[in-house]
Amino acid sequence: MRRAMGALAAALLLGAHPAWAQYPDKPVRILVGFPPGTTGDVVARLLAPRMSEGLAQQVIVENRPGAGSSIAAEAVARASADGYTALLSTIANAINPSLYKLSFDFEKDLAPVALLAETPGLVVAHPSAPANVRDLVAAAKARPGTLAYGSSGNGTVTHLWGELFNVVTGAKLTHVPYKGSSQAVTDLLAGRIALLFTPASTVVPQVKADKLRALGVIGRRRLPALPEVATLAETGVPGFEASLWFGLNVPAATPAGAVQRLNKEALRSLAAPELIAQLAAQSIDAVPGSSEEFAALIRQETQKWARVAQAAGVKSE
């Protein structure tokens, strides 16, 4: 009798979630909200084959660019909560709610699976600009609005980095938005703007060639490529510890079993030395994190950028 009851209990336990015992039994899609070749796309395409091995199912990367990744994020938020559609999320998804009226809530409608990677940023200056952060702040306070910084567009993280710098230092830098980073770098090299807040990979070659001066790293640690350049936190400027991060999210109602399996395979993949090296070659750091850690980061980042946007009066265009 006792053995029969035990067998019945085991059968009931196994039968409680019959679909998830076989998860996944078909391909998993990762939607990327940016075009092919962008940093987020690189992260997804390097990660996908290794996750495919662990899941024993194909992991397909699909680009859905537009609206600063909000098109892809909304598609995932509205997808079936079955563990087969995920979002390669970025810092942009934490910024967008403070700038745009969205039809979904990034924090509530998308469940965090794992923090994946980050790419550090740099504050770089034309050689004619102040030589260090302290002199830059002093000059910007003495002559408000005369020093201009470029970004890759209004409302982008590169724009908000500059506004955060203004807020925490009291500097008065003027924002000049560009449509992407290429023209911004060109104008910085020509001295048409004094500064640029940008992903590090965009400008490291110019810094090494002494065509631009690196004033500080946006991120938790110094860059191996430029070990002599201090982080902004080291120079006394707070708030820049988090750089351009990337994570994995699924629809909010996705069963815990599927979330845990995706987290396990993502973190296992990110621990592979070969993948770490592939990411590092693209100036991307693997920073695997749990679902709980990623949820905390999303919450902190969303609140921080809402405060910055409000304090700086940043509006969407």
Layout of secondary structure:
Blueprint: H1 2-15, H2 18-21, E1 28-32, H3 39-55, E2 59-63, H4 70-77, E3 85-90, H5 91-95, H6 106-109, E4 110-119, E5 121-125, H7 133-142, E6 148-151, H8 157-169, E7 174-177, H9 181-189, E8 195-199, H10 204-208, E9 213-218, E10 244-251, H11 256-270, H12 273-280, E11 285-289, H13 291-312
Parallel strand pairs: 1-2, 1-3, 6-7, 6-8
Antiparallel strand pairs: 3-10, 4-10, 4-11, 5-8, 5-9
Helix pairs in contact: 3-11, 8-13
Characterise the protein shown here.
By secondary structure, this protein is an alpha/beta fold. It folds into two domains: 24-118 and 243-312, Bordetella uptake gene, domain 1 (D-Maltodextrin-Binding Protein, domain 2, 3-Layer(aba) Sandwich); 121-218, Periplasmic binding protein-like II (D-Maltodextrin-Binding Protein, domain 2, 3-Layer(aba) Sandwich). 42% of the residues lie in helices and 20% in strands. It is built from 13 helices and eleven strands. It has helices spanning 2-15, 18-21, 39-55, 70-77, 91-95, 106-109, 133-142, 157-169, 181-189, 204-208, 256-270, 273-280, 291-312, and strands at residues 28-32, 59-63, 85-90, 110-119, 121-125, 148-151, 174-177, 195-199, 213-218, 244-251, 285-289. The strands form two sheets. Strands 2-1-3-10-4-11 form a six-stranded mixed beta sheet, with helices on both faces. Strands 7-6-8-5-9 form a five-stranded mixed beta sheet. Strand 1, helix 3 and strand 2 (59-63) form a beta-alpha-beta unit. Helix 3 (39-55) crosses helix 11 and helix 8 packs across helix 13 (291-312). It is globular and about 65 Å long. It starts with a helix and ends in a 5-residue tail after the last helix. Mean pLDDT is 92; it is low at 1-16.
